[in-house]
Amino acid sequence: MVSENLLSSSKRSPTTPNFCNSFTTRIFSDVAGDITIVVDGESFLLHKFPLVSRSGKIRKMVADAKDSNISKLELCNLPGGPHTFELAMKFCYGMNFEITTANVADLRCAAEYLEMTEDYREENLIARTETYLNEFVVQSLERSVEVLATCEQLPPIAEEVGIPNRCIEAIAINACKEQLVSGMSHLDCNSESTELKSSCLEWWVEDLSVLRIDYYQRVICAMGSVGVRLDSIVASLMHYAQISLKGIGKSQIWNPARMKSSPNMEENDQSIIVETLVGLMPTDKSSSIPLNFLFGMLRMAIMLDAAIACRLELERRIAFRLEMVSLDDLLIPSVRSGDSLFDVDTVHRILVNFLQRVEEEENEDCGYESEGIGSPGHGSLLKVGRLIDSYLAETAPDPFLSLQKFTAMIEILPDYARVIDDGLYRAIDIYLKAHPLLSEHECKKLCKLIDCQKLSQEACNHAAQNDRLPVQMTVQVLYSEQLRLKNALSGSSGDGLLSQRISSGIPSAAMSPRDNYASLRRENRELKLEISRMRVRLSELEKEQMYMKQGMIDKSGNGKTFFTSLSKGIGRIGIFSGPGGGRHQKSGRKPRGPEGKTGRSRRYSMS
């Protein structure tokens, strides 16, 4: 079938005077040709008989010619061009040449164009190329990918003869077969080592990265339909994105001039790639797409100005696992000129999607078990609350971040998403420091978002001496600290408030069952939040007790210092005193009298 030494039988002659800007190719140098075929400007001096005996198209063109002695024909838009036509002519002359994965698609389309069917000669070129496709190409995944890649430059006739469809189907089926035959199914991968699992996922990934995005899309869809593992498909998507989008550099992020000009052809192609890859992501919840890949695709979609639906889909997928996101992931640079340094709007939409998901999960749950202290939904919400507070503190120094956007990020989270407001206080304090031109009214509006009763002892001490806070905020902090001290000394620590909320949770007979359920759910949230606060306060008191004991041990040699430390610290642990501890608590208050008066006098003077 193949004999490379016979390819030298083709001799090229200089350009003939009859055909300008072309040259004549002789198949036989010892026999004069009687017809010239022109293909894309290149001339071939041939013989009618071997051509009309195998090609129906050339036979019809010769028969339909008005001049029976026609000596020139022109073939327009022949698939594969002159090189493929030369191979087809060698076949007509009975010369040996090699059919390979690089030329079989071109030869099959050219044979279809030239109508080289069995009606004119047995084992014609169509039959020979079909045999090669069926016996060699579709039996191998690698060869199918190679042939499919060559179809990218072919005209629509390739689709008509079904070469891409057969290659795509062969790739999907062979991938599924080798997945089973190799013994590396999904369960096997989970039970083996990390190296084995990695090789299980990546054996065909690199081959598919050479395909054009439209063919790649069809391959992935076919793989999903035949049952290829979703984690393998995700690995392929990640590798394809890494290869095809690697040209997008960081210089494109901070270039304001780029946003004014229209995107070039390369950026349009990359935008299509991003949108297609996002559309190919598995919708099955059991498939775990790495968050860093989702954020990387989101950054690409923003930079390339991809379709809104593409960006919203990525934001929705990220919001589904927002509690697992790191702070660095959320720091998405903004590409708009004159806007803030970070894309706060995108993070805001992600947060909205997350809260909607939490609300839907709560509505789907008809029981009361999910409202317990260990509720997964509430735990996720607390994690996201801490994450958003850290994000606000990171973006607060941005001088271009508007108060409206900053406030919107704070207000969107419900009250029960934060056990303590230390993180929120820190973010607001940083924002006030970075934006000294805020009016008094704006400062008050911003500081109202802080719940002084949810500040820790350390945060209260800092806020009481913070000159950037409005006076009203400082007064509220001091008043809250005074109430906390009073509760600690009296031993109540919010018990009255807790019992009051419990009693208020009794559903009213006048309310509908749905309203009763909603009311009880709100009360449960408040109870969880109150208990969480008590735990935080308990931890602070235990820490103070530990410090006090350590001080007692260190100063045990000095009796006066020991009793002074005891009298100052024992009042703080009055809440843990037993029935016999009343006398110690009373004696502990006596030396604190002057200090208490001084403290109250100082606080009243500040108000």
TrEMBL record:
PROSITE patterns: BTB, NPH3. It comes from the Eukaryota. The keyword Magnesium does not apply. Residues 33-101 form the BTB domain. Keywords: Coiled coil, Ubl conjugation pathway. Residues 575-607 are annotated as: Disordered. SMART domains: BTB. Residues 517-544 form a coiled coil. InterPro entries: BTB/POZ_dom (IPR000210), NPH3/RPT2-like (IPR043454), NPH3_dom (IPR027356). Pathway: Protein modification; protein ubiquitination. Residues 202-484 form the NPH3 domain. PANTHER family: OS12G0117600 PROTEIN. Belongs to the NPH3 family. This is Phototropic-responsive NPH3 family protein. It comes from Populus tomentosa.
